Amino acid sequence: MNTAKIAKISLISVAIAYVLASSTVLADDEPNKKPHVDPSATSKFINDAASENGEATEEDNEENNEEELQTIAVVNGKPISSLSLDRVTAQLAAQGQNPDRQQIIQELINLEILTQEAERLELDKNSDVAVALQLQYTQTMANAYLGEFNRDLRISEEEIRAKYEEQIAAIKASEYKASHIILDNESDALNVINELAGGGNFAVLAETYSTGPTGVNGGDLGWFQPENMEPEFSAALAELEIGETTSEPVKTKFGWHVIQLDDLRSAAKPDYSPAVKAGIQNTLLRDAMARKVDALRSAATIEIR
């Protein structure tokens, strides 16, 4: 067997291990659930779920159940379901690979043979293996519950609109366009301020003295919202009129700044577009799921030892 084929089989084995580890419980009797969800990554789960539309009909369910019962191989009397093959194929395709279904079947057979040998040796009684199996079961059941919860969850247009208005109201009213000259100490910053007072050109002084990366551009920082800057920087900027420069050096954790306000404008606010609505819906779904988890935790008896 050549190296390329070995590498390909390794990739298939990884995909099979991932799918079998993440989807075992859902595979047998829940073919129409949302994709596997890691409980530690609920935001990804909700984003995926929010993009899905439509519900399966009873005919679809019956058809899927019939497909699910198909057997692609039998190893020592134990069947391997076509659903396992389908899931591994889909996982590889999602990774940009071109799945070879016959090769995947052979890998599934290999895994089943190895599993049966492990059972024969009672390796499931090994403490490390037992813990891993229990964790896999717990994760899979948690995923199944999250899928059930998400399927029944509905976010109304009114809720989405209200959240949009809330987020719009939180956007700061102004954006600043500013330049700065950053120096290592207060004394150098005061010297620059004195040169500016004597008629010096801000951009030229920035190119000459600034120790920061914006110096080559005359200290230009472009447009930004004040909350994206250090608090001391934003506070000093808020006191300036357009064209003015700070009369005292401004100290932040990055050094000593001489700041000039170049322009001011109202902050752009996103339209209520389909993309914005989808993002807000995902946020509301995540919030709803977090509240559900908190409620379940509150009702549970938990002892940390």
Explain what you see:
With 305 residues, the protein is of the alpha+beta class. It folds into three domains: 3-152, no CATH class; 158-168 and 270-299, no CATH class; 172-266, Roll (Chitinase A, domain 3), CATH 3.10.50.40. It is 57% helix and 13% strand. It has a four-stranded antiparallel β-sheet, sandwiched between helices. A hairpin with a 2-residue loop joins strand 1 and strand 2 (78-81). Helix 1 packs across helix 5 and helix 4 crosses helix 5. The longest helix has 27 residues, at 3-29. The relative contact order is 0.11. The model is unreliable at 1-12 and 14-63 (pLDDT under 50).
Mean pLDDT, to the nearest integer, reads 80
List the strand order in the largest sheet: 4-3-6-5
Distance between the termini: 52 Å
Number of domains: 3
Structural category = alpha+beta
The number of helical elements comes to: 11
- Sum up the overall morphology in one term: elongated
Structure summary, number of beta strands: 6
User: Largest sheet at a glance?
Assistant: 4 strands, antiparallel
Strand content: 5-15%
The rounded Rg comes to 30 Å
Name the helix and strand elements from N-terminus to C-terminus, one letter apiece. Answer: HHHEEHHHHEHHEHEEH
State the low-pLDDT regions, or none: 1-12, 14-63
Percent helix, as a range, is 55-70%
